[in-house]
Specification:
The protein has 9 helices and 12 strands. The chain is α+β, with helices and mostly antiparallel strands and 389 residues long. The structure holds adenosine-5'-triphosphate and magnesium ion (MG). The site of adenosine-5'-triphosphate has 21 residues, from α7 and α9. The site of magnesium ion has 4 residues, from α7.
C-alpha cells in the first residue's frame, strides 16, 4: 500500500513540469518506468500503424491501437511480455512488463492520472501553437517594418530625382546671369573699355549669384540629411525653403505661388519630413496643371499656427480630383500618371509621415475646379509635449 502511494506520488509529480511536450512526456514515462520496473515505455498515436512520439527503454510495437477502452488494457505480446495500454484522447501510453503481476493495480493508478495528463498534453500543445503564432506574428511585423523602410527610401529616391530637376531649374537663371556678366567683361577687356567701377559692380553681382547657388544647394543638402530632431521652425523658413526648392520650377511653368500666414510665427516639428510632404503635394499640383492646361494656374499655401496645433492648407485650381478616385489617392501605388512620372508613392508616404511620424492628420477635398489638402499637426515644444497655455 505504502509502495503504491509512493509510486503514485512520484508519477503525479512528473506530470506537467514542462510546457515542452517531448520533455514532459519523457519525464512522465521515465518516472513511471523507474517506479514500476517496466522495461520500456512509449507514447504513441493510435491507428493501424500507431506512430511513436516518445520511446524510452526497450522498444516494442502494438500492431493496431484503437481507443475503445475507458481506463486501461493489458495486451499480451508473445515472447515479450505484457503491455499496459493507457489511452489518452487520441494517443496511448504503453508500458512493457515481463510479468502481469500488479498490472491491474498499476493500470488503475495510471488511469487516475488521465485527466491531469490530458490537460498537461493540451497545455503543451497550446504553448507550442502560441509560440509558433508569436513567431509568425513577429516575422509579419518585421516584414512590415522592412517594407515601410523600403518605401520611405523609395519615396525619398523619387523626391531626389524630382529635386535634381528642381536644382537644374533653380540654377538656370543665376548661371545665365553669371555667364552674361562674364561675357560683358570679356567684351569690355577686348574693346579696351575697362571701367574699374563697372567691373567691380559686375563682380559683386556675380558674387551674389554664386551665393545664391550655394544657398540653394545647402537647402537641398539639409533636406536630404537624416534629421530626426525636433526643431524650432519659423513659418518664414518653410516659405523660403519651399520657394528655394520648387519656386523656379513653378515659375517656369507659369504657376503663381502665394503664401498666406504670419511669417513670424514659430512652431516645433520635424522640418524635413514636413517639407517632404509639402513638396509631394506641390509637385502633384504642378503635374495636374501640366496635364490640364489651366489658363491662370495658381497655388495658395496657408499656415495657421495655433496654441496646440498647426494647420496648413495647399490649394490649387488645377481642375480637381474626380469623385471616382478621390478615396484612393492616399493608397499605396495609386497613380493616374504614366510610369515615367508617377509611382503612386507621394501621397501614401505623405500620409504615413503626417499620421505615423508627426501624429497629425491629412485630408483632401476637391471639386471640379480646385483641390485642397488640409494638414494638421500638433504643436509640440522641444521637450516633446503639447503646448498647453
Ligand atoms: N492636386 C491634384 N490634382 C489632381 N489630381 C491629383 C492631385 N494630387 C493628387 N492627385 C491624384 O492622386 C494620384 C496619387 O498621387 P501621388 O502623389 O500619391 O502619386 P503620383 O503623383 O501619381 O506619383 P508619385 O508621387 O509617386 O510620383 C495622382 O496620380 C493624381 O491622379
Ligand atoms: Mg505625387
Amino acid at each position: 500500500m505504502m509502495q503504491q502511494s509512493l509510486i503514485s506520488y512520484e508519477c503525479i509529480n512528473a506530470i506537467g513540469n514542462s510546457l515542452n511536450l517531448d520533455e514532459m512526456l519523457r519525464d512522465v514515462i521515465s518516472t513511471f518506468i523507474r517506479q514500476t520496473g517496466a522495461s520500456g515505455g512509449q507514447f504513441v498515436s493510435q491507428g493501424v500503424n500507431g506512430k511513436s512520439i516518445v520511446t524510452i527503454g526497450e522498444t516494442f510495437t502494438i500492431p493496431n491501437l484503437i481507443n475503445n477502452i475507458d481506463s486501461y488494457e493489458i495486451i499480451v505480446l508473445a515472447e515479450r511480455g505484457f503491455v499496459l495500454d493507457i489511452p489518452m484522447i487520441e494517443e496511448h501510453f504503453l508500458f512493457l512488463f515481463k510479468s502481469d503481476e500488479n498490472l491491474d493495480t498499476l493500470g488503475n493508478m495510471f488511469s487516475n492520472f488521465r485527466t491531469k495528463l490530458i490537460n498537461s498534453i493540451d497545455a503543451c500543445r497550446m504553448a507550442e501553437q502560441c509560440s509558433e503564432m508569436t513567431l509568425s506574428l513577429t516575422k509579419e511585423i518585421n516584414k512590415n517594418k522592412i517594407n515601410e523602410e523600403i518605401m520611405i527610401s523609395q519615396s525619398r529616391m523619387a523626391v531626389m530625382g524630382e529635386m535634381i530637376s528642381m536644382i537644374a531649374h533653380q540654377w538656370r537663371q543665376p548661371i545665365t546671369i553669371i555667364g552674361m556678366l562674364i561675357n560683358n567683361t570679356i567684351l569690355d577687356v577686348e574693346l579696351g573699355e575697362i571701367d574699374n567701377e563697372k567691373i567691380l559692380e559686375d563682380l559683386t553681382s556675380m558674387d551674389e549669384q554664386v551665393h545664391y547657388l550655394s544657398k540653394t544647394i545647402d537647402d537641398f543638402r539639409h533636406f536630404f540629411r537624416p534629421n530626426k530632431l525636433l526643431q524650432n521652425i519659423k513659418v518664414s523658413d518653410v516659405s523660403r525653403e519651399l520657394l528655394n526648392m520648387i519656386g523656379k520650377n513653378l515659375e517656369s511653368n507659369k504657376i503663381s505661388f502665394s503664401f498666406e500666414g504670419d511669417l513670424n510665427d514659430e512652431f516645433y516639428s520635424y522640418k524635413n519630413e514636413l517639407l517632404q510632404v509639402f513638396l509631394n503635394i506641390l509637385s502633384n499640383s504642378r503635374d495636374a496643371f501640366l496635364e490640364k492646361n489651366i489658363e491662370f494656374p495658381q497655388i495658395i499655401f496657408t499656415t495657421n499656427v495655433k496654441k496646440d496645433e498647426i494647420l496648413f492648407s495647399i490649394q490649387d485650381n488645377a481642375g480637381g480630383i474626380s469623385k471616382d478616385i478621390i478615396d484612393q489617392v492616399f493608397d499605396l501605388y495609386f497613380t493616374t500618371k504614366s510610369k515615367e512620372i508617377g509611382t503612386g508613392l507621394g501621397l501614401y508616404m505623405s500620409q504615413i509621415i503626417i499620421e505615423k511620424h508627426l501624429h497629425g492628420s491629412i485630408k483632401v477635398a476637391s471639386d471640379s475646379n480646385k483641390t485642397v489638402f488640409y494638414i494638421k499637426i500638433p504643436n509640440i515644444d522641444n521637450a516633446g509635449v503639447n503646448h498647453v497655455y
